[in-house]
Amino acid sequence: EQADIYSRLPCRVVGLPLRGELNPLCDLAAFYRLLALVRAEAIDLIHAHGFKAGLLARPLARLCRLPCLLTVHNDFALARSSLVPGLLFAAERVLSRWTSGYVAVSSWTAEMLRQALKVSDSRVAVIPNGIDPDKLSGAEPLAFPFAEGTYLVGTAARFARQKGLDILLEAAAMLVPDYPALRFVIAGDGPLRPLLQRRADKLGLAGYVHFPGHLDRIPNLLACLDVFVLPSRSEAQGIAVLEAMAAGCPVVATAVGGVPEIVRHGQNGLLVPPEDAVALAEAIRLYLAEPAFARAMAAAARKDVEAYSETNCFEQLREVYTKLLESGRLC
After folding, report:
1. Fewer beta carbons within 10 Å, N or C terminal of the chain?
2. How far apart are the C-alpha atoms of 247 and 132, rounded to whole Å?
3. Quick check: 126 and 107 in contact, CB under 8 A?
4. Sheet harboring 101-104: ordered strands across?
5. pLDDT less than 70: residues of the chain
6. Helix (H), strand (E) at residue 327
């Protein structure tokens, strides 16, 4: 199925033996395969996504005397945590000298680049991840094992600490005693799934929370929800929020990273502090108590999300490529 998706793209896709973690043998094999490809295809510019790909791309670009862009996604926030003890940033400080420019997916990410790596404004372009709003509206709702009249709150995320799903469970436990028809769907998978399922049981949420696992049909999930929640502890941008907004879901999100650049509190959604289950529960409660307000937030969000269309983002990226190839600079 993945290969079929790639076959429909308007470009050539070449697989590489590249893994998320450091693996000297696989990384070296990927480097030499890329080197052969760049030389055979007369490549003019290299654009890497994420720090791991960037570890290979910058030395390759320098060896081939080519300009190199690096797009920084949410791994920037994760790399700054205690789980990655400085090694990645030490390498990035060296490799940044071989980087023609950075593409940041939010202004927050751009500011982190400036602070942590002392990257000048002239070397950073802010281009958010784009979505196709039309693909996220009008989808057929998924069928879940809930009675008719259920009020459904949900999210889709990797089951990792960064996503704050434990905070959502705590908020759910505060709400269900007052709202018998309230149910929660937490879609996704990851290392914390067993822990979160046990936590839901301990909070008395059996029958109230559904874990459907990984879902490929996110638009169909969003079509079911009365409220979409993003309880993350960190987010570089929050593309899941954009998808929910395009699908017409009222949104509650934590005010972290680049999320406040998308969600304007009380105008197109609600923002709450991270790690605050009480505030998260109260925001959901507001939508429950004020359905007209929820509809107004969803309508405003659907209008605002047009600025994040793939077409707009592709055009911005095209301009960056053109500037870099013509002048060697982003600005």
Report:
1. N
2. 10
3. yes
4. 46-49, 68-72, 101-104, 124-126
5. 1-7, 74-87, 331
6. helix 310-327
